[in-house]
Write a structure and sequence with these properties.
Distance between the termini of chain A: 40 Å
Shape of chain A: globular
Number of strands of chain B: 12
Number of domains of chain A: 1
CATH topology of chain B: Sulfite Oxidase, Chain A, domain 2
Number of strands of chain A: 0
Structural class of chain A: mainly alpha
CATH architecture of chain B: Alpha-Beta Complex
Shape of chain B: globular
Helix content of chain A: over 70%
Distance between the termini of chain B: 50 Å
Number of domains of chain B: 1
Helix content of chain B: 10-25%
Number of helices of chain A: 10
Largest sheet of chain A: none
CATH superfamily of chain B: Oxidoreductase, molybdopterin-binding domain
Radius of gyration of chain A: 20 Å
Oligomer: heterodimer
Number of helices of chain B: 10
Order of helices and strands of chain A: HHHHHHHHHH
Largest sheet of chain B: 7 strands, mixed
CATH class of chain B: Alpha Beta
Chain lengths: 225, 317
């Protein structure tokens, strides 16, 4: 089975749908302001970016809190990022542009901020398609290489956010700080491991390949102390 | 202590305090007489709205359906107050608009500082239903109440050396948080027009919309409206109008010269460096309804294209 359903997972599935329900309620009660199409579009984009950040936060949080269970739910969080990104794209094409392809074409060609949105979506789509367990098994080491592109997706999504604004940069700034911290954490772990590996070579110990899960490395490090 | 103003005001020009106190009533009464004087059915028994049934200033242009007033009031950029439209709308209510005077100076024969009601007393107010297109690719239709800017400029007699008009908005850092923090733009906000653009009959100074005084968030008490240019050109809460020999440096051009030019004429063929200007979302249109195809000069090309006949619009964006 692709998704093992347990208690936490089912709760998480329900939680992930709350933003959508909330949006539907706001549509029903006309709470989206003078430009509801844009408001809805931005809300969907926001939720996609939030789930992307949550997905990225799993490993750092797990390392910092030493709580093991979270990685099981990373896939679900990532799929929710994909789900809201898909709605975001659909809202752009259908709700805002009424599927008038000529208009959509001109808009995309002339709007660099959309190019980055498109890049983000293509990455997230590819990661979603290769997220099932069997795909992971079949792809072997390439799976990990491919799924590192999530960082590129996050950075592109944030530039996509910045570039469409005239003022009010507070929100994209907030997300860029989050993504920067998450990236910083990953890079610092990677640098630390590289240095440790160099130290380990002369003693003749087995060197873990860099592509291995960083947790495994920190685990060895901890044992050595 | 004697507090001196920049230019001394002769005693004869100081408004009688009794008149001063009643300024609002005077404005409304003035407008009421204007309406009856124009032979239009007199204003309804209740004084509010102030200006019902004004004659159409742009009667020859196509009939437009105004955007619902609530949408217009709740969707306005006012960066002096906040960078998002919701907060700007509520914070703008702190703006002090009474008393209000406008300084007119520079290359004119009769420079001076004029109270708003004195300016209005010499103008005929009319309703102008214009399309309003924001550089952020949304648009609306607003029934403004105002008078041609050219009529005011004619009164102060521009000199032949006057080639540009600079407008300066109010500076009230005590109620405008973004001015207080020196955030983003150089405050106060500055806009500008070429003199022929300023004298064009479509260019108006608005004091109201939807038959009533302008809401504070929409530019009260006096704003510019240039319907063929992106919305940010239509500066709000004007306190100073200067006629100059050289083009003024406008706020957005100073902030991002490659993104916001001096002209900023609405043009679907010239994209903003980061987004397309080919279409716009008309406020009030439904989900799944198509966007409006943006028109060159916002559809006012017949009246204004001749102003730019010898110009490369891609270069002078």
């Amino acid at each position: 089975m692709i998704l093992r359903i347990d208690n936490v997972r089912s709760k998480l599935i329900v939680c992930g749908l709350i933003p959508l329900l909330w949006l539907l309620v706001d549509i029903a009660f006309d709470n989206l302001g003078s430009n509801p199409i844009q408001a809805l579009h931005i809300r969907l984009g926001d939720w996609s970016l939030r789930f992307l950040c949550l997905t990225l936060a799993v490993t750092p949080v797990q390392t910092l809190t030493k709580w093991r269970g979270m990685a099981d739910y990373r896939q679900l969080l990532g799929l929710y990022a994909f789900f809201y990104a898909s709605l975001h794209v659909l809202a752009y094409l259908w709700m805002d542009h009424a599927l008038i392809w000529r208009m959509i074409g001109v808009d995309i060609i002339e709007s660099p901020y959309i190019w980055l949105g498109l890049l983000t979506y293509l990455i997230v789509l590819l990661l979603a398609l290769t997220s099932p367990k069997w795909a992971k098994k079949r792809m072997g080491k390439n799976w990990k290489k491919l799924h590192r592109f999530i960082y590129l997706a996050a950075v592109a999504a944030i530039i996509h956010y910045f570039w469409q604004l005239k003022g009010n940069l507070a929100e994209p700034l907030f997300y860029s700080i989050i993504v920067f911290l998450l990236l910083f954490f990953r890079v610092s772990v990677w640098v630390k491991n590289r240095q440790l590996n160099k130290l380990m070579i002369p003693t003749g110990q087995k060197v873990l390949p860099l592509t291995e899960e960083s947790e495994a490395i920190t685990e060895t490090v901890r044992k050595r102390h | 202590m004697i507090i001196k103003t920049k230019t001394a005001i002769p005693a004869s020009e100081i408004t009688d305090p009794l008149i001063f106190k009643d300024r609002r009533k005077i404005i409304k009464a003035l407008l009421a007489t204007m309406v009856t004087g124009a032979g239009i059915s007199s204003a309804s028994a209740n004084a509010n709205p102030a200006w019902a049934n004004l004659p159409q200033g742009n009667a020859d242009t196509e009939l437009l359906t105004p955007t619902p007033i609530e949408l217009i009031k709740n969707y306005t950029n006012y960066y002096e107050f906040a960078f998002n439209k919701q907060d700007a709308g509520s914070l703008a209510q702190n703006l002090r608009t009474d008393p209000w005077s406008v300084e007119i100076s520079g290359e004119v024969e009769k420079p001076g500082t004029y109270y708003l009601e004195d300016i209005l007393r010499r103008q005929t107010l009319q309703e102008y239903v214009y399309r309003f297109r924001c550089v952020e690719a949304w648009s609306m239709v607003v029934p403004w109440i105002g008078f041609p800017l050219g009529n005011l400029l004619t009164l102060v007699k521009p000199l032949s050396t006057a080639r540009f008009v600079k407008f300066t908005a109010t500076y009230q850092p005590e109620v405008m948080p973004r001015q207080r923090n020196n955030a983003m733009l150089h405050w106060p906000y500055v806009e500008g027009l070429r003199i022929d653009e300023a004298m064009h009959p479509l260019t108006i100074l608005a004091v109201g919309m939807y038959g009533d005084i302008l809401p504070k968030q929409n530019g009260a008490p006096l704003r510019l409206v240039v319907p063929w240019k992106y919305g940010f050109k239509s500066i709000k809460a004007i306190v100073k109008i200067e006629l100059l020999q050289k083009p003024p440096i406008t706020s957005w051009t100073q902030f991002a010269p490659n993104e916001y030019g001096f002209y900023s004429n609405i043009n679907p063929a010239v994209a903003h460096p980061r987004w397309s200007q080919s279409s716009e979302r008309l406020l009030g249109s439904r989900f799944f309804s198509p966007r409006r195809q943006t028109e060159l000069f916002n559809g006012y090309g017949e009246q204004v294209a001749s102003l730019y006949s010898d110009m490369d619009l891609r270069h002078f964006f």
